């Protein structure tokens, strides 16, 4: 991600340290700006060097600012597009040579119900996320002959970013919760991660080009 405020940076560092202690050699970290193609290339090279191969790619990074559409500046717009859509493109292109080698690879891109529902104050974020869905559908067809599956997850999870959004826009947050049939935002680990793990596994080997909604039932795709 791009440089974060100091407090957020320290939070990330502490979390990385905790994960490193818990998982040891099963995890490796690389800090960089995901909108930079060189960072994507370096991330892929680091993964292959550390783990020996790359057969799953998950794109879930994005930074955005919440405000009414007419108040979005060019910088606000580019922030979401660069760290969301462009970053997804960067990592997919960087990973492709390695994914081709596996014979059964999976790409999992994150989108959002914000675009499907048209949530207020989310213009740049929703636009970037819906663009990621469009990109994923196209590439799922193009990469199917390579046995590379490309699917999308739309989560409704109480992440740190959502918590900050809830503080800034409490009425919008309350409306969002009220629209969730299961009555709550999901937990990233318990409610969303298992969906990602499923798409990464051989259990989903006959699925590609799909959008899976992990958001408590607030959106029903037809």
Topology:
Blueprint: H1 6-23, H2 37-51, E1 56-59, H3 74-102, E2 105-110, H4 113-117, H5 123-143, E3 148-155, H6 160-168, H7 170-178, H8 188-200, E4 211-214
Parallel strand pairs: 1-2, 2-3, 3-4
Helix pairs in contact: 2-3, 3-5, 6-7
Task: State the main characteristics.
8 helices, Rossmann fold, 4 strands, 222 residues, alpha/beta, four-stranded parallel beta sheet, globular, disordered N terminus, single chain
Number of strands: 4
Strand content: 5-15%
Order of helices and strands: HHEHEHHEHHHE
Residue-averaged pLDDT: 90
Overall geometry comes to globular
Tally the helices: what do you get? 8
Integer count of domains: 1
Major sheet details = 4 strands, parallel
The Cα radius of gyration reads 17 Å
Distance between the termini: 33 Å
Q: Could you state the CATH homologous superfamily?
A: NAD(P)-binding Rossmann-like Domain
- Strand arrangement, major sheet: 1-2-3-4
Briefly, what CATH class? Answer: Alpha Beta
Helix content: 40-55%
Write down the CATH topology.
Answer: Rossmann fold
Low-confidence stretches: 1-8
Briefly note the structural class of the backbone.
alpha/beta
- Examine the secondary-structure arrangement and name the CATH architecture: 3-Layer(aba) Sandwich
Question: Overview of this structure, please?
Answer:
The chain has 222 residues and is an alpha/beta fold. It has one domain (53-214): Rossmann fold (3-Layer(aba) Sandwich), CATH 3.40.50.720. Helix content is 54%, strand content 10%. It has helices at residues 6-23, 37-51, 74-102, 113-117, 123-143, 160-168, 170-178, 188-200, and strands at residues 56-59, 105-110, 148-155, 211-214. Helix 2 runs parallel beside helix 3 (74-102), helix 3 packs parallel to helix 5 and helix 6 packs across helix 7 (170-178). The two termini are 33 Å apart.
